[in-house]
Specification:
With 282 residues, the protein is α/β, with parallel strands linked by helices. 39% of the residues lie in helices and 12% in strands. The chain is built from eleven helices and eight strands.
Length: 282
Amino acid sequence: MHMIDAHCHFWNPARGDYGWLMAGPASLDPLRRVFAPSDLAALNGGARVVAVQAADSVAETEYLLELAAQNPHIAGVVGWVDLSSDNAAQDIARLAQNPMLRGVRPMLQDITDSRWILTAPKDGAIKALIAHGLCFDALVQTRQLAHLAEFAERWPDLPMVIDHCAKPVMGGELAQEWRDGMAALADQPQVMCKLSGLLTELPTGYADAISTLRPVVDLVLNLFGPDRVIWGSDWPVLTLAASYQEWADMTAALLAEFSAEDRAAIMGQTAAAFYGIGGKDA
């Protein structure tokens, strides 16, 4: 089984456009350094990865595309474009000339207006994403799910993936608003869900990671099915909670009852199909 880590980040804080990182609390101090493709390759044996934006700037997207040109194990880049800009369609067309660009991600979780996705993006920008064969990564929280579902219904030809299972509140009964929002999105066949970014969302004082994660993982896999769930590490943010290997081992435990075929889909094949990644590891 060839793994694809469909959600990781590379950054150099000296570039100056990681506002959330540099202005964040002291708990982020371990992340305030360079994280390079070679660092991750040393942890995952050079498995193919999708590099996802971590700054709301086109300049960072160009930085990631440069890293992809220098590091063959970067199989694709999910960048950033201001979808509300009058120039968004032109920016998308220019960036899409680089075949390593496989999608875009607005940082929706940082936007106070939960309905932004329905009101701010220009239609021309979304049409440009579709025309250039790009995907849409949705970095959202529970409060935005119903609006994201409406957006997905409005744009059925735009492949979409929910990052980090929309960061549900764990440790007790899962919120009905989260359940309903995820179910509404699962009803849209072009929408996938990433099994990623959950360890850093675990509540303080949880007794056991596997038992705390399992209700989320089980519900997501029941709603979307293995052929619409994509695995990612969320490295290096992951390192605030666990090592790369620990998350890989937890994933193996959470998926142990699934068939080898289903595990292969979750751990790489679905990501390859979704992002249009070819080659031997697809």
